[in-house]
Write a structure and sequence with these properties.
This protein is mainly α and 129 residues long. Helices cover 54% and strands 5% of the residues. The chain is elongated and about 95 Å long. The chain starts with 14 loop residues before the first strand and ends in an 18-residue tail after the last helix.
Length: 129
């Protein structure tokens, strides 16, 4: 992947356009249209054949739900998908920052001196009466 993360198995392109279209119940031309609009970005073989991953299929199913169940037009779908992508990137960034902070906290805890200090209560003078 571009950002240095290891690709998940669901990101591995494996389905040709006809198979992907069949799996999601769409026409191959619809998949080409969604790619042209930037809604889905299938992988390509060296020869240029589109290959769709499981993640691409899930994205296509979401697009299908947005258009059929919610009645969104393509502009609405583009907006929802853009926001979803932004949210995913923000979540990934927050997860990374949380891991870094937890590692930093653990390092600080390891640096604490582990000494036993006896507690001695101070002697207060007896109240005057």
């Amino acid at each position: 992947m571009e950002d240095g993360r290891r690709a998940r198995p669901s990101d591995r392109p494996r389905y040709m356009i006809s198979v992907a279209a069949d799996l999601v119940g769409m026409h191959p031309q619809t998949l080409r249209l969604y790619e042209a609009k930037g809604l889905v970005r299938p992988g390509r073989t060296p020869g240029g054949t589109r290959l769709y991953s499981e993640a691409d299929l899930e994205r296509l199913r979401l697009i299908q739900r947005l258009t059929t169940e919610l009645g969104l037009n393509h502009a609405g779908v583009e907006q929802v998908m853009r926001l979803q992508d932004e949210l995913s990137k923000t979540r990934a960034r927050m997860d990374r920052l949380e891991r870094e902070l937890r590692a930093e906290i653990a390092e600080i805890h390891r640096s604490y001196r582990r000494e036993v200090v006896l507690y001695r209560p101070s002697q207060h003078p007896a109240p005057r009466g």
